[in-house]
Design a protein that fits this description.
The complex is a heterodimer.
Chain A lengths: L1 H37 L17 H7 L2 H32 L4 H9 L2 H4 L2 H12 L5 H8 L16 H26 L3 H9 L4 H12 L1 H17 L2 H6 L11 H11 L3 H31 L1
Chain B lengths: L1 H33 L2 E8 L3 H17 L3 E8 L4 H11 L5 E4 L4 H7 L2 E2 L1 H4 L1 H7 L5 H4 L3 E2 L2 E2 L5 E5 L1 E5 H6 L15 H11 L16 H13 L17 H13 L12 H9 L5 E4 L3 H5 L10 E5 L15 E5 L2 E5 L5 H11 L2 H4 L11 E2 L2 H4 L2 H6 L1 H8 L7 E3 L6 H16 L5 H20 L2
Parallel strand pairs in B: 1-2, 1-3, 11-14
Antiparallel strand pairs in B: 3-12, 4-12, 5-6, 7-11, 7-13, 8-9, 8-10
Classes of the chains: A mainly alpha, B alpha+beta.
Chain lengths: 295, 449
Amino acid sequence: MIKKYHNTQLLPYILTCPTLLFVFFFILYPIFYTFKLSFQNVNFLNPGVTQFVGFDTFKEVLFSPVTYTVLKNTLIWTGLSTFLVIFLGIAIGHFLSQDFYIIKIVRALILIPWVLPGVVIAGLWKWMYHSELGVINKILTDLYILKTGKPWLGSPNTVLFAVIMVIVWRLAPLFSLVISAAIQRIPYSIYEAGEIDGVNKWQKFFYLTLPQIKYPIYAISLLVMIWGTNNLVLILLMTGGGPLHFSETLPVYLYKEGFMYYKASKAAAIAVINFFMLLGLSILYIKILVTPQKG
Amino acid sequence: MNVSYRKIIKKSMKIGIIILLSLFMIEIGCDSFAKQVTLRVWKFGSPSFERDYMKSRNKVFEERNPDIRIEWVYQVWGTKRKKVLSAFAAGNLPDVLLIDGQSIPEFATMGIIIPLDEINPELVKSWKPRFVPEIWNLGVWKDKVYAMSTYVDMAPMMVYNTKMFVEAGIVDENGKAKPPLTWEEILRVAKKLHSPPKHFGVIIAATTGTNDVNIFEGVAYANGGRWLDEKEENIVINGPGTVDALDFWVKLSKYAEPGLVETNFRQAAQLFFQAKGSMYLCMSWAPILEAQFEIPEGFEYKLTAAPKRKKPSGRFPRASSIMTPTTAFMVTSTSKFKKQTMKYVDFWAQYEQQKGWDGSVIMGRIPAMKVSFESESFRRYYPDLADLYKLGKLFEGSLSMPAFPGITEAEDKLGLAIQEALLKIKSPQQALDDLQKAVQKIYNEARKR
């Protein structure tokens, strides 16, 4: 009886062991190692040196003028891309929830931006945006909207917004499919009741549809915010963070410091800042939007 | 139920151990049966026809050395240092790297590569007489031979559209297109041929990519500018040689494509070869890129040295060109097969392998071996260069491309400084003064080792 009780107690731990090991080795340990590295002065051009330097690396990062440009870019990048993905995602999702034959075809095609590899998308849009070689400028100049090709990725004023358009193009379709599925699950009786009360199309959308899909919106918005913030491939391959840091975000900054300049500790410090920034944004998001609704 | 669960666990563990042991035995068995060593070789960059040539020679090596198999992996040029660094950190370096000579100081400092003359001094000594001394020295750092070169790329060079020149009346006394020789001349010619949006006076690549920065470095070095002073202690990139070069770059950019800071060397070449620009300031690899683009019918061009300032304004002697081997053979510190890697590098140190770069197979590269310059093919494809070589003038005044620990970050920051000047955010002097301070710090840190 004692043996049976003992085995029953151990069983949950044995079953969760593989997952726990995975979480430990691939999530917790790297996080711990990154924190540890951020308090040292590891530079690959100085192999073998791993001195503890306290907050010196963080001071170097926080007192660098580049950091503030990068933080500003990251906030614009995160905020604007999340907002546009949500806005377009809801609009397209509402459209996709309709019951026309063509919607079925659109629903299949709309996932193309999501399934294409990031490297392919970056290469494609980098070519499309080019001032002389790109198809966007060709169309705009042929339609006499522009006189000459505009360097969308070469101008400090337009580069960040040009790359934001690309990530919105990539993420909005996925968001719209989730919204479309959520809308289709709304019981029709709610709309029937609304019709009896005489609601119009806009009131139906704002007072009946939106409240019913708020939780999927909250959940996927948080994911979009995190995916967008941590996106490295698009910016790195399209602009490299340039020109002159005007499109550089925290992940790109981190990558350059670690892999181009060999400054492992500085890259780790930037990763820690990124981590806390995202954690703060997520907690704020949940506190402001999700918790009051549950209350 | 618990008893049967325990039985399942025990049985699964037994099966798992048997499978693992079997795989291990097969692995050992295969190795001992084959007695074959696999050398992992990473080749960075180069167009496909050049890589195909190298792969065909690798097959010959494998036929002559059946105990060695070459595992050839192509890697993108733009990710070269990051790729090697990641592999080093993960303990996953290949045996041989085919990469640029500019990386030698950083890789040697990090312990990624080892001197070839420490593995087999006699063999390396036997190679030296075959190579052009200026090119041989590009593989040497701190008196140790780290790399064996196959060819070099040189900067600054210029390609110009001969048809556009003739049509605009920019010709010599024989009616042939006359390329500009000085900065003043190129500015005049670029202004005359600047006809946007049809075509631009000049194409400039001004991203922070290494090729784009190397082209500018070539212009600066030709004007007496340098990264380091004579004692190699101080960064002097903000001297008049480089400042005036950057000022010239800003003036020239008025006649360039509007998106020059987003245009890299490859896109710039595409613009030139599609007749969107009358001139392109580039490196000696420009003809190599031609093969990758659809050239309009009747398109004709020539490659020549880039225009220089009449009299250099920098305090250092004019460099006629700067050069680096971009397919230099290096052996990594983690290679377990040093004997076999040296056999492989020795194979490539023979003229039989390197003759393809004399123009007979691959155009647009400056070969590394003396005998290549004396070959019929080289004379046929590069008559001017063959004459210069015969007179001992081809490499006169040529220097190595800048290479020191910290060069990757330094060149990236130079690219940013160039963009600051081109976008008129800072004056050339201001941009280079700020660059000098930043890079001096980097260089001092790197020199502490």
